[in-house]
Design a protein that fits this description.
With 147 residues, the protein is mainly α. The protein is 58% helix and 6% strand. 13% of the residues are buried.
Length: 147
């Protein structure tokens, strides 16, 4: 980073967005390292320009400087740096996918409902047969006494 790249306090230049080459110089690592860190740290997600170039925000640059400090100065591993950033609130917690119990298949529910309907129909048919038999017996008995 050249002196023209910083303001009077030695801080980052006041800009809304930085390109990967600028961020590489500011942070002090090669661009491929920045791209790798993007894959490892969910909180570092530069936007892309219409041309597909990475456009880093001031917040992204600050996080990258923190990541470099943890990795290079304090000897953290990627996982350790990620954990430290997460504890500090700079890195989102890992997404834990809650897998619900598999829902019964619609076909299985339908099959069960149809089975219940079938049992009801069979029961009703049995009752009708009994009622019909009772009517026939009553008719025969009634006809025999009447005649």
């Amino acid at each position: 980073m050249t002196p023209a790249d910083t303001n009077a306090d030695g801080q980052l230049p006041v800009k809304l967005y930085y390109r990967i080459g600028e961020v590489s110089e500011i942070v002090g690592v090669e661009p491929h390292v920045l791209r790798y860190w993007e894959t490892e740290f969910r909180s570092i997600r530069p936007q892309k320009s219409r041309k597909g170039q990475r456009i880093y925000s001031r917040r992204d640059v600050d996080k990258l400087i923190k990541v470099k400090d943890l990795l290079y100065s304090h000897g953290f591993t990627i996982a350790g740096a990620r954990k430290r950033l997460r504890e500090g609130g700079a890195e989102p917690t890992a997404v834990v996918a809650v897998v619900p119990a598999p829902a019964p298949r619609p076909g299985a529910q339908l099959r069960a409902a149809l089975g219940e309907i079938r049992r009801d129909i069979v029961t009703l048919l049995g009752e009708l047969d009994q009622a019909r038999a009772g009517i026939e017996v009553a008719g025969r008995t009634h006809g025999a006494t009447a005649g």
